Amino acid sequence: MSEAIQRLQHLMTCLRDKEFGCAWDKQQTYQTIAPYTLEEAYEVIDAIERSDYDDLKDELGDLLFQVIFYSQIALEDDKFNFDDVVNGIVAKMLRRHPHIFPQGELSRFGEPNTLSEAEISVQWQAIKAQEKASKPKQSVLDDVPSSMPSMMQAVKLQQKASKFGFDWPDVMPVFAKIREELDELEEAIKAGEQEHIAEEMGDVLFAMTNLARHLDVSPDMALNKTNIKFRRRFARIETLLVAQNRKLTNCSLEELDRYWEQAKSEGL
User: What family does this chain come from, according to its entry (predicted)?
Assistant: First the structure.
């Protein structure tokens, strides 16, 4: 193991030391740091979207620290350690790449690989299916974690169902489904039943996610890009207002919309 990893592990051990460790770090559990793990993963994606590689380096370090943190807690609970995590993923990758590592051995690397990308994908899915066949489950959807972010979870559920033929044959019926769900949402809004409105809103979002999947677009990444664009354009509105010694609160919607259009025309 590299010296850098060993230093990081030692640092984590110090932070969790019962006598001299950090009061906050000592109190953490798998459950309490889970939200931070999700946050760090999104910050990695944000750095990639911004092509900020210095920031990406830092964010990857934060994400790695999360893995070290979980591993230290597990070590204290006599469940597993960081080496087990590393050895587990190495074994899994060897197992899932038999075309690269014959007989699952790193020492066999370097032999000719004749599989196409499509054949590799089929092989990968078959191996994953074999691995999961040994795990007890009630439904084919059990493999999709319910704690996964909702939009990502929707895509995974749809992909699973699609493998068993429960899917639209092409993208056009999805548009009809979206229109149907929008009509139902409109009816719910007219009825004024908040719980029903929320349910129908969920159906609309699920249908839109289905459309993104059929278009081979990540809805989460697509929305993230739009969020970044919104931030950029709104910041431009604020800059324009500052230059005119004006405040957001003193502008009408029509005025703000004109500034928005200017930001768009500037390519933001």
Answer: Belongs to the nucleoside triphosphate pyrophosphohydrolase family.
